[in-house]
Amino acid sequence: MWWLYIIRCADSTLYTGITTDVQRRFTEHESGKGAKYCRGRSPLKLVFKQEFKNRSEASKAEIRIKKLGKREKLALIASEINVV
């Protein structure tokens, strides 16, 4: 299974990614070994995750979400779909 996740950084920006293990990947981001974008933006908070059956579906969802504006992303995080 693949997961799409969104992290809220300390500066209120949102980072979106995909992984097979959300907790492992979040820990990597927190330790500075994840995406460069998250480095220096601690503390981080996992605010959204959604499961997909394969990498292709997760990647397509990631692309769609990255095209959204911040207001739309916040609405998604607040929605019932959110499984965090």
Structure, described:
This protein has 84 residues and is of the alpha+beta class. It has 3 helices and 3 strands; from the N terminus they run ββαβαα. It has a 3-stranded antiparallel sheet, with helices on both faces. A hairpin with a 5-residue loop joins strand 1 (2-8) and strand 2. The protein starts with a strand and ends in a 6-residue tail after the last helix.
What brief labels describe this structure?
84 residues, alpha+beta, three-stranded antiparallel beta sheet, globular
What value does the average pLDDT take? 94
Fraction of residues in helix: 25-40%
Strand percentage: 25-35%
Structural class by sheet pairing and helices: alpha+beta
Secondary structure: number of strands = 3
Tally of contiguous helical segments: 3
What are the secondary-structure elements, in order, as H or E? EEHEHH
Contiguous uncertain segments of 5+ residues: none
Order of strands in the sheet with most strands: 2-1-3
What is the terminal separation in angstroms?
A: 16 Å
- From the alpha-carbon coordinates, what is the Rg to the nearest angstrom? 12 Å
Shape: globular
